[in-house]
């Protein structure tokens, strides 16, 4: 999931990020432009689902884009103008709008409210995993919400108050807190630091593909990290300095850079 410009730091993931141990050997990345130059200049949020990218523009209009760059409007123009968070789960789009959670049909754009009005007004980040939404509120408390809107607190109140990013990978929640990477088992309520303290302080974007976390740092360098914390640089240093958004679809990274969509293999 991605919302906002390089402040995917809501997370968001959704939004997504990483860097660790020590592996300085860069590997070459292969990328290609998708669609026309500048077509994504008004995009404020995007997420991959069911073989396509779903994005929302600054005027609140929802679009569906195929892998070849062909796109179409979904639903009424401006129907999503109050969205602050966007994610995908169980074939539906999930948004937070003016503090309330909604589920939308990606084919028609029709939506229904999930849970009570304003239940999500304090939410700062959210991510989908295993049929549930996990979210962190301003005070650092983690919640798990099912598809009907029923929620429960996970762990102690305020336990995640320093979390700047939230992502899901391999059945765990991954957060960056105070510049350090943590892995949390939401079922057991246990967490552990991965890698060295402060290694993630320069991260500005994070995304997950299967069993790897992909991160972009302030200088625009891309890294990938496995579940043990072993990392490697991907491509040239600074190659992603113009990235505004980052998300994944079918094993590929998609970025918006200077208003243009790119796919990295």
Which key terms come to mind for this protein?
single chain; 265 residues; mainly beta; N-terminal domain of TfIIb; 5-stranded antiparallel sheet; 4-stranded antiparallel sheet; globular; disordered N terminus
**Helicity level:** under 10%
Give the strand order, joined by hyphens, for the main sheet. Answer: 1-3-4-5-6
The beta-strand count equals: 25
Based on CA inertia axes, which overall geometry fits?
A: globular
Number of discrete helical segments? 0
Report Rg: 17 Å
- Mean pLDDT over all positions: 89
What is the second-level CATH architecture? Single Sheet
Label the structural class: mainly beta
Largest sheet: 5 strands, antiparallel
SSE topology string: EEEEEEEEEEEEEEEEEEEEEEEEE
Write down the CATH class.
Mainly Beta
Give the tally of structural domains: 1
Low-pLDDT runs of 5+ residues are 3-28
Strand percentage: over 45%
> By CATH's scheme, which homologous superfamily applies?
Tachylectin-2-like
Describe the overall structure.
The chain has 265 residues and is an all-beta fold. It has a single domain, classed as N-terminal domain of TfIIb. Strands 1-3-4-5-6 form a 5-stranded antiparallel β-sheet, with no helix packed on it. Strand 17 and strand 18 form a beta hairpin. The N terminus is likely disordered.
Could you outline the blueprint of secondary structure elements for this entry?
Layout: E1 2-3, E2 31-34, E3 43-49, E4 52-57, E5 62-65, E6 71-74, E7 83-89, E8 92-97, E9 100-104, E10 111-114, E11 123-129, E12 132-137, E13 142-145, E14 151-154, E15 163-169, E16 172-177, E17 180-185, E18 190-194, E19 203-209, E20 212-217, E21 222-225, E22 231-234, E23 243-249, E24 252-257, E25 260-264
Antiparallel strand pairs: 1-3, 2-25, 3-4, 4-5, 5-6, 7-8, 8-9, 9-10, 11-12, 12-13, 13-14, 15-16, 16-17, 17-18, 19-20, 20-21, 21-22, 23-24, 24-25
């Amino acid at each position: 999931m991605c919302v906002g410009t390089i402040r995917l730091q809501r997370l968001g993931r959704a939004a997504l990020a990483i860097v660790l141990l020590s592996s300085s050997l860069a590997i070459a990345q292969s990328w290609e432009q998708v669609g026309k130059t500048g077509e994504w200049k008004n995009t404020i949020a995007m997420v991959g689902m069911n073989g396509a990218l779903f994005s929302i523009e600054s005027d609140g209009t929802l679009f569906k884009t195929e892998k070849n760059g062909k796109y179409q409007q979904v639903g009424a123009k401006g129907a999503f103008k109050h969205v602050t968070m966007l994610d995908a789960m169980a074939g539906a789009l999930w948004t937070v709008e003016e503090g309330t959670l909604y589920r939308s049909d990606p084919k028609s754009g029709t939506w229904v409210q999930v849970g009570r009005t304003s239940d999500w007004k304090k939410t700062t980040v959210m991510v989908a995993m295993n049929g549930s939404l996990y979210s962190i509120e301003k005070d650092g408390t983690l919640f798990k919400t099912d598809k009907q809107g029923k929620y429960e607190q996970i762990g102690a109140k305020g336990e995640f108050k320093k979390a700047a990013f939230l992502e899901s990978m391999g059945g765990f929640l991954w957060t960056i807190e105070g510049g350090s990477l943590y892995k949390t088992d939401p079922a057991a309520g246990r967490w552990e630091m991965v890698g060295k303290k402060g290694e993630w302080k320069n991260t500005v974007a994070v995304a997950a593909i299967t069993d790897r976390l992909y991160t972009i740092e302030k200088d625009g360098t891309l890294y990938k990290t496995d579940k043990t914390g072993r990392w490697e640089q991907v491509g040239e240093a600074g190659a992603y300095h113009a990235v505004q958004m980052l998300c994944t679809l079918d094993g590929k990274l998609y970025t918006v850079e200077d208003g243009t969509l790119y796919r990295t293999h």
